[in-house]
């Protein structure tokens, strides 16, 4: 997959099969669009193009971007698009000036002028251009003028509910990790750098890796204990994760602490990716460390049983 961080370096294609959007989470609904994109590119002999934006448009055009919580960082999206087999990924710097492009300007300058779009594939709720004025109906009416065809992917449902990034976010912040993973089509991940914590875990027999996230906008799920896979330098480890403030030891700051089974290396300053598999229980305050250790042992037994299924 070729990656472009500016359209200035993009060489116009003879037959571009294109989709555009933020694709937060690259969930099953997005994957249906991308699957159709790849199918058309194979049938037509064209090249598939994903046009996405960074930073997230809301950070530029919205006054309440402080509350923004993303399901995927730009690095995670790049990896997911590559795994799906996309030919070209254009990451357009989203600026105030870019947000002011009308739908007609976006089509003529970007889709046609820069990329060479011959077929555009969009989701059922896709909007584009200044104030989201562009729609499927607008495209249908005008696509022949621009020299390309447009196809809309209908609403994709799971259990009679539309797949959406907002539904996945709600599942994550309420502890329904299994539902979120089902909608994503994979395990939800947290990636970051291992930093030094208070090192209490090692004194009670459960050393932890404290994770500092790469992206401040990344959504951190509901506080509690999770069963996880941890990926470090190409090796995957089984483990447990605690998200929370550690009330038993009078903690106040929210932390992300992973205990990896059979792992005893010091990895401060190194990257770690956690796959959240299952929510075990809420975070609790115990009457002293002995009770905390007893519960951690129970949690570990639950995790071991989960992996032995």
Explain what this protein looks like in three dimensions:
The protein folds into two domains: 2-162, Rossmann fold (3-Layer(aba) Sandwich); 187-307, Beta Barrel (Elongation Factor Tu (Ef-tu), domain 3). 33% of the residues lie in helices and 28% in strands. The protein has ten helices and 14 strands. The radius of gyration is 22 Å and the shape is elongated. 30% of the residues are buried.
The overall average pLDDT, rounded, is 92
CATH superfamily of the largest domain: HUPs
Number of helices: 10
Reading the helices and strands in chain order gives: EEHEHHEHHEHEEEHHEHEEEEEH
Kindly identify the CATH topology of the largest domain: Rossmann fold
Oligomer: single chain
What is the strand and helix layout of this fold?
Elements: E1 2-4, E2 16-20, H1 28-44, E3 47-54, H2 57-61, H3 74-84, E4 88-93, H4 96-99, H5 103-115, E5 117-123, H6 136-146, E6 149-153, E7 157-158, E8 161-162, H7 165-173, H8 177-184, E9 188-195, H9 200-203, E10 209-213, E11 224-232, E12 235-244, E13 255-260, E14 271-281, H10 289-307
Parallel strand pairs: 1-4, 2-3, 2-5, 3-4, 5-6
Antiparallel strand pairs: 7-8, 9-10, 9-14, 10-13, 11-12, 11-14, 12-13
Helix pairs in contact: 7-8
Compact overview of the structure:
This protein is α/β, with parallel strands linked by helices.
